């Protein structure tokens, strides 16, 4: 690829560094987000309903296993809620990484789904982060989460 510069993503070694901390593991309440909007969110929206079935605490436990170090150096990781939520949005909607980020930027429902407390027009993360999100959730982990989602759906019927 002569003449073309390849974009490189710097990958950090996470040995001994605690790069992850989660403050938002539980589903936020509709009233918390509705107060920040000029309109109310529809509680029957598919993303709001799906968010109730996802075992966010377990998702966070699984995701945080990728960040086992104890130091506080380096940039903080994007939350499990955002990472897993973005992967679900991409898969359900059949989007590219770039389209996923764009959809999240445009939709208050998707922002609610990934745990935002208020709507923003800012890009949630660079689309290249989707590669890292996929690496951090192995097929075995995703299988476990999917089974828990199905269990939660069956409990709430």
Radius of gyration: 17 Å
The total count of helices amounts to 8
The count of strands amounts to 0
Q: Element order, helices and strands?
A: HHHHHHHH
Q: How many separate domains make up the residues?
A: 1
Account of the protein in words:
This protein is mainly α. The protein has one domain (30-67, 75-155). Helices cover 49% and strands 0% of the residues. It contains 8 helices and no strands. Helix 4 crosses helix 5 (97-106). The radius of gyration is 17 Å and the shape is globular. It starts with 29 loop residues before the first helix and ends with a helix. Residues 1-17 have low confidence and may be disordered.
Give short descriptive properties of this protein.
157 residues; mainly alpha; 49% helix; globular; disordered N terminus
């Amino acid at each position: 690829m002569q003449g073309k510069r390849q974009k490189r993503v710097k990958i950090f070694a996470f040995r001994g560094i605690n790069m992850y901390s989660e403050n938002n593991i539980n589903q936020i309440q509709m009233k918390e987000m509705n107060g920040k909007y000029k309109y109310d969110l529809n509680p029957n929206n598919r993303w709001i309903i799906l968010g109730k079935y996802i075992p966010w605490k377990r998702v966070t436990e699984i995701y945080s296993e990728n960040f086992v170090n104890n130091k506080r150096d380096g940039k903080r990781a994007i939350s499990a809620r955002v990472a897993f939520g973005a992967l679900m949005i991409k898969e359900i909607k059949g989007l590219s990484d770039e389209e996923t980020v764009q959809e999240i930027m445009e939709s208050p429902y998707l922002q609610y789904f990934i745990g935002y407390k208020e709507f923003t027009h800012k890009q949630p993360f660079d689309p290249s982060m989707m590669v890292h999100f996929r690496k951090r959730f192995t097929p075995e982990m995703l299988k476990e989460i999917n089974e828990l989602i199905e269990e939660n759906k069956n409990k709430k019927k």
